[in-house]
Amino acid sequence: MSHSITTLVSGFGANPKIYELDQIPNGSQIEGALLQLGCRPSVPAVFIGQKLIGGEKQVMNLHLQNRLAPMLMEAGAMWLWK
Q1: H or E stretch including 54?
Q2: C-alpha angle 68/70/72, rounded to 5°?
């Protein structure tokens, strides 16, 4: 996951789970599945509450639209937001 996305999500108090596809045995299969889901490029692929959000551009757009924090709250990834 890109450093900027990790920093952004962590800044809301969420604790993102990061999977480095090049470091796990079935990483290439997961990358292929992400491509089939339409995630281009395939990494970083961000899921919130088991829903594919997309890549860095989609996450940043949600943040700029003030929709990222509510999604994180709805998914139970954070408790409070000002």
Answers
A1: strand 51-54
A2: 70
